[in-house]
Design a protein that fits this description.
Elements: H1 2-18, H2 27-52, H3 61-76, H4 80-92, H5 110-119, H6 124-142, H7 148-176, H8 195-202, H9 208-213, H10 222-232
Helix pairs in contact: 1-2, 2-3, 2-7, 5-7, 6-7
Length: 233
């Protein structure tokens, strides 16, 4: 299962890289490691997102929600129930006043939109849990390497920040920034990306018209429907 591979890859890479002594690692490899961690970090959210649409384990709702809760917890100590409610509000009111992911009236600056987007998902309890988890990971890393603080910042904090930017740009800002009446009721567009780049960009989340039109599709099913829709044009 792809979701299990993402979860396992995230865990293995986390503990392997936290124990590395950065003094002996070429900068180029460090950059590649950060990019890998960022990609896997985004993958955690995508797993949680599929769970919110109940397509992760459709025949086992309790297990589906448990895996989704685990994925979002590992991603950023996020509450699955809170994210579930907000995400379905987004699907019911895309681009509307009740859309928690959309920019406020008159606030179309990408930076301000990003800040508003993030503020909707961050909370004091969530940030407390996240910092506490990072503190525990730091204690583990301190027992293994002299560069523990740098490792935590590079392989935990930075990937989370980069992932949030990736999800915002590819999954919210670019597909939803223009309210196009021709794009069905959800006013979303798909990004014209080749499939390999779409995967790297955000696990095909850039095929956003297809996601809103067929919310019951898993992330890896979106390219097939994107190709089909392009052939019909």
């Amino acid at each position: 299962m792809l979701a299990a591979a993402i979860l396992l890859g995230w865990l293995v890479s986390l503990f392997a890289l936290l124990a590395v002594d950065l003094h002996g690692i070429p900068p180029g490899l460090v950059v590649l490691a950060v990019l890998l961690r960022s990609f896997l970090q985004t993958g955690l959210f995508i797993v949680g997102h599929d769970a919110m649409h109940r397509v992760l384990l459709p025949s086992h709702r309790r297990c589906n929600d448990l895996l989704g809760s685990m994925a979002l917890g590992l991603y950023g100590a996020l509450s699955y129930g809170r994210c579930f409610a907000k995400h379905h509000r987004h699907h019911r009111n895309p681009g509307g006043l009740r859309d928690p992911d959309f920019h406020a009236k008159g606030v179309e600056s990408p930076l301000l939109w990003y800040c508003r987007f993030m503020a909707g998902y961050l909370s004091l309890p969530q940030m407390t849990r996240l910092v506490a988890c990072w503190g525990l990971l730091l204690l583990v890393a301190l027992a293994e390497t002299a560069t523990a603080v740098q490792n935590l910042l590079l392989f935990c904090t930075l990937p989370l920040l980069l992932s949030s930017l990736q999800l915002f740009l590819v999954g919210t800002y670019l597909p939803h920034r223009h309210s196009d009446p021709s794009c069905s009721g959800h006013h979303a567009i798909s990004l014209a990306l080749p499939e390999w780049l779409s995967l790297l960009a955000c696990y095909h989340f850039g095929y956003h018209w297809e996601h809103h039109e067929y919310p019951g599709l898993a992330w890896f099913q979106l390219p097939k429907h994107y190709r089909s829709n392009r052939q019909l044009l």
